Amino acid sequence: MARASAFLPGCAAAAVLLTALVEPARAAPLEERLGPLVEARMAVDGVPGAVIVRLRGGEPVWTRAFGLADPAADRPMTADALFRAESISKPVTAWGVIRLAEAGGIDLDAPVGACLRRWRPPPGTPPFTPRQLLSHSAGLGIGDFAARYPPEAPRPDLPAHLATDFALVAAPGAGFAYSDTGYNLLELVLEDCAGADFAAFMAREVLAPLAMHNASYDWTGAPMPVGHDLKGRPVAPYVYPGRGSGGLHATAADVARFAAASMDGANQAVLSAEGLATLHMPAVRVGGLFGVVAEGYGLGHFTETLSDGRRAVWHGGQGYGWMTHLHIVPETGDGIVILANSQRAWPLFAVILRAWSESLGVAPVGMSRVLWAAPLARGAIFLLTGVAALAGWGLLRGARRRRAVRVATGFAGAGLLVAVAWAARQDYLFIFSILPGLSAWLGGAMALAGAALAGVALWPARGR
User: I want to staple 416 with a disulfide (CB 3.0 to 4.6 A). Which of 347, 355, 372, 450 is the partner?
Assistant: First the structure.
């Protein structure tokens, strides 16, 4: 009975979600559609809470909090909740670097070591520039994104962290290679060139002028929602060794003010119009998995061309227990901010972004392609279950099998079982994020098919 009581609300949520997805975009304003759409998707994927802000004409016009900030305490999410911004930190950091460059404090095209005093890249490292760090084209590896510490615990300072985290994986300028290490190195560059603490500089030169009053790159201990990992478990507060890549804490209103300041012609005094345009101009083409959802990367911003020819810029963020997203169309002032206290929120974000795209009269933006994963996974589950059924039928019949067939099925079965066992031991895999509700089913289907194929290989046929 308990299982039935849990199953029926899930079915109801799925039905609401399906209705919302197939309903024509013109049926209701976006704000009216988002309510039931978001609530249904959160129920399907197990996302505790979220805050969404919509911008039109360069101004926030709608804000709403959904769900719970702390399910264990039944504490509702509020619109002014403070979130980990995660990699939305990067475009804000980019503003700080351009601010310093426009003040003459840094040369974007000089070798990055020009200002560095407390740490330098290893001898023999090819030179790279702050501009290349900003565009993820310096050739640096992604870095140890799992390096987390309790806020009150000792942790390595940034130079010590960079000494162990720095790794060149490609020649500088060779292409796009997403790098947290690169943005943490920019933090050190900014500190050494400006002669100021990174968080203090960012607060004085960027956050305060943009009225991001609750935002900070320093841990303040202010109350926050409880983050939740991919298994829905609560996550204790933590900080990273570096702040430039993912250390910003902000409310949805703070991120919306940043988005508003990023629009063409915005009334902001931090950057020149030329400096802002430089941030949004594609600097490198994006490939790999990132290339599925983005065309290029500017300085601190992913870029894409909408179906009507307008340019959009955006950035997402994912950390342990948190996910965030910012998408804007600078030319028209349209934008959307989505913050969630769960690592299971990518399909939720994709559904919201698809609805937002429809409200703009354009084809779904690239990040909505996350939704392609679910039907592919369901197809794979169906196929693997069919393989298991056929293999099981063969075992029951005791059909004769050639040695080559037994060897092939044995290797296939073992491969599937090893893959499932390996995945089960991982704290994070990309597929877990895009399939929060289906990855366990996919793993189960793989294990079933693997066991059945192994049985075909090992079980002797009748009469042999």
Answer: 450
Mean pLDDT by 10 residues, the chain (464 residues): 37 46 58 94 96 97 98 98 98 98 96 90 94 98 90 91 95 96 97 96 98 96 96 95 97 98 96 97 94 96 97 96 98 98 96 97 96 92 91 69 76 91 84 87 92 81 49
The Cα–Cα gap between 354 and 325 comes to: 13
Whole-angstrom distance, CA of residue 369 vs CA of residue 348:
12
Alpha-carbon span 358 to 374, nearest angstrom: 21
CA atoms lying within 13 Å on the CB side of residue 201: 26
Domain boundaries, the chain: 1-45, 82-364, 373-458
Q: What type of residue sits at position 450?
A: G
Given CA atoms 235, 236, 238, 244 in this order, what sign does their dihedral have? positive
Pairing of strands 49-56, 334-340: antiparallel
State the amino acid at position 321 in one-letter form. Answer: G
Reduce the DSSP state of residue 218 to 3 states and report it: coil
* Cα radius of gyration (the chain): 24
Q: Residue 324 burial by CB count (10 A; 0-12/13-18/19+): exposed, middle or buried?
A: buried
> Tokens 């201990």 identify what position?
221
Determine if residue 320 is left, alpha or beta; phi over 0 gives left, psi from -120 to 50 gives alpha, anything else beta. beta
3-state secondary structure 252-297: HHHHHHHHHHCCCCCCCCCCCHHHHHHHHCCCEECCCCHHHHCCEE
The domain defined by 82-364 carries CATH number 3.40.710.10 = yes
